[in-house]
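PROTEIN DATA CARD
Card holder: Heat shock 70 kDa protein 12B isoform X4
Chain length: 657
Origin: Lipotes vexillifer
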Amino acid sequence: MLGVPEMGLQGLYSGSSPEQSPVPSPPGSPRTQESCGIAPLTPSQSPKPEARAPQQAPFSVVVAIDFGTTSSGYAFSFASDPEAIHMMRKWEGGDPGVAHQKTPTCLLLTPEGAFHSFGYTARDYYHDLDPEEARDWLYFEKFKMKIHSATDLTLKTQLEAVNGKKMPALEVFAHALRFFKEHALQELRDQCPSLPEKDTVRWVLTVPAIWKQPAKQFMREAAYLAGLVSREDAEQLLIALEPEAASVYCRKLRLHQLVDLSSRAPGSGRLGERRSIDSSFRQGDRYVVADCGGGTVDLTVHQLEQPHGTLKELYKASGGPCGAVGVDLAFEQLLGRIFGEDFIATFKRQRPAAWVDLTIAFEARKRTAGPHRSGALNISLPFSFIDFYRKQRGHNVETALRRSSVNFVKWSSQGMLRMSCEAMNDLFQPTVSGIIQHIEALLARPEVQGVKLLFLVGGFAESAVLQHAVQGALGARGLRVVVPHDVGLTILKGAVLFGQAPGVVRVRRSPLTYGVGVLNRFVAGRPPPDKLLVRDGRRWCTDVFERFVAAEQSVALGEEVLRSYCPARPGQRRVLINLYCCAAEDARFITDPGVRKCGALSLELEPAEGGPHAAGAPPSRREIRTAMQFGDTEIKVTAVDVSTNRSVRAAIDFLSN
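Structure generated from the sequence above:
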């Protein structure tokens, strides 16, 4: 049984074989663009996928950028000594009591939209602006989450600055990546003046594993715009999945570099151990990495493979938007209960710089929260907040606190909000509970049985409140919960190691089912009657979902799914094929519930060799063989013109849907 990709009637290739005669779908059916018809040469059932070792481009140094929701940074290592990881220079500015190994993910643009500064410099400059002047500047923070939450992400998606002004998201991300590029390259030049400029750097960008393909492609497009690499040298940029990067790093740690939450008592034997985690593992041992960051909790479960220490993913990436910013949102909602939601909205809009100051003050106190803390916490209110409230409401903030129904927040004699430790811990509970629920749901999967270890990583994993809650909920399962000492840098360091050896994750699980819509020969009694299409006396079943890879299917790195296509017309320069995806493994038709168009495969063709055909002679069939890979961090495609054995420019676009 042969599958025919769906297409319009005009411009179709007319083959001599009736089994390969393309037939149009009924009006209204999903289909490829009519100007780009194709005729298939392969059966609807995939041939056995071929495994091919990925080609690696030469490079002298790997630079990884951990682009986080709340903080970001870069690190690098040279190919000559890949495990000697160099952290970025200490950032200027910063907050008292906070390590400056990363910088806040804050971007400041001038009123004209030009780049001004990033990180602490951007935050501090914005803080010092006159309140009226600040309303014209574009200040962006925590903007990474917008890419995760956007349901219709495109290259034209807009981001809103704190003053309400909008700008293309692609430009915002490119400004930030360009800053890191220039900062990193300058440091490399300072350390190694003899380092050649061309083809020197392999760049690595980190993204949450739960991000879908459009968001990953968006980050790649931003990197192109920022000048990290060119499209022609696309292989010089790798997308690393954050919990995977953490896993790569954690398996190399020595036991004395970890805090075991289940056995913190003296004499536990943790100190002085010199075995690394992977050397204490046996072949087949399994562990979970919970990346608790600013915006998301991102979970992966790996099995260690011997003798080379490669990793096999046992279940598709899971998690959700349960990051540290959830605690910030809870604090904002608390302020709304005290001072009025309308006032908070007005204050954020008219005094954006002062609102940033307030969030910084809360962040500093949030870091000191702990499950066993007994004393209250004081949170400074900016003078502009106090003054603005009095002008808007006609009474002072102390009066507002006395009148509110919130009993656990008082006004201190030092002119601060005084919050009980219980009240602070309550702000954590919705987010912390969400994280634990995601972990428990993962552990309940049959594929994850036998897990012995949970690595808690990411910036939010520094929180004593989160550590205590996770250990309390999961320790009773016999699960060993461990936290690396440099927990906030785990992903960044792991991304460098991943860039040096991207084949370390040998097998991944496909998060979705992917395929195309085709026509198959109609078999009476099997498909629904409304899928029957009759043309020239032949009976066809339309809208059939031809699967390339199934959700949760294990796919090895380099494993290929092969398809061959034939241009519909002589001289056709482009072939465009719609791709569909769904969460279900057993979808039959592209019209089934949950199946949606998610992208398009495009093939750019050179003019066929051999010149025009003789009068009346049928054109020879031109076969374009495509190879798709679903086992990497991004879906990849290559194509070859079989007649000439030349590469065909092929790409999958998930952003122009």
